[in-house]
Amino acid sequence: MNRTTRTNRTRQAVAAPRVTAMTGLVLAVGVVVQGLFAGGFLGGDHGFHAWHEVLGTALVLPPLVSLVAALVLLHRRPDARSALATRVFLLVLVVVVIVTGHAGRGLLAVHIPAAVAVAGIAVRQAAGFVRIPALRRDGSERAEGWGA
User: Fold this and answer.
1) What's the CA gap between 78 and 11, in Å, rounded?
2) What would the mean pLDDT of 74-83 be, rounded to a whole number?
3) Does residue 4 surpass a pLDDT of 70?
4) Residue 74 CA neighbour count, 13 Å, CB half
5) What is the mean pLDDT of the chain?
6) 124 CB contacts (<8 Å, ≥6 apart)?
7) HSE on the CB side for 78, CA within 13 Å?
8) Any alpha helices (H) in the chain, and if so which ranges?
C-alpha cells in the first residue's frame, strides 16, 4: 500500500467532517476573541472580565457538539481512532482551560499554553475537513483538502 492510498483511507474515516470543520472554526475564533477580552481586562477595563468568563465557559460547546456528532454518526461513518481521540482530547483540553481560568492568576502558566493548544487543534480541524480551492498555475481552480 502506497502513501496516497493510506492517506485517502484516513481522509474517508472522519464522521461528520462539515460539523467538525464548523465547530473547529467556531472554537478557533472564540479562542482568538478570548485573547482580545483577556487583553482588555488585563489592560484595566474590568468589563471584559465578565465577557471572558462567559465566552470561555460557552466554548466547551463546540468540541462537545463535535464529539457527540461523531458518536451519533458512528454507525454510518466511523471515525478513525486518531480523529475520535483528537475530539476527546480537545474536549478535555477545553475543560482544563476553563478550570484553570476560573482558578485565577495562579494557573495562568497552564491556562494560556492550553488555550493556544486548543486554538491550534481547532484550526487544524477547521482547515482539515473542508475543500479549499487552490489556483493552478494556469489560473483555474482545483479543490484541495480532505475529500477532494
Assistant:
1) 12
2) 78
3) no
4) 9
5) 82
6) 24
7) 5
8) 3-12, 17-42, 47-58, 61-72, 81-102, 108-128
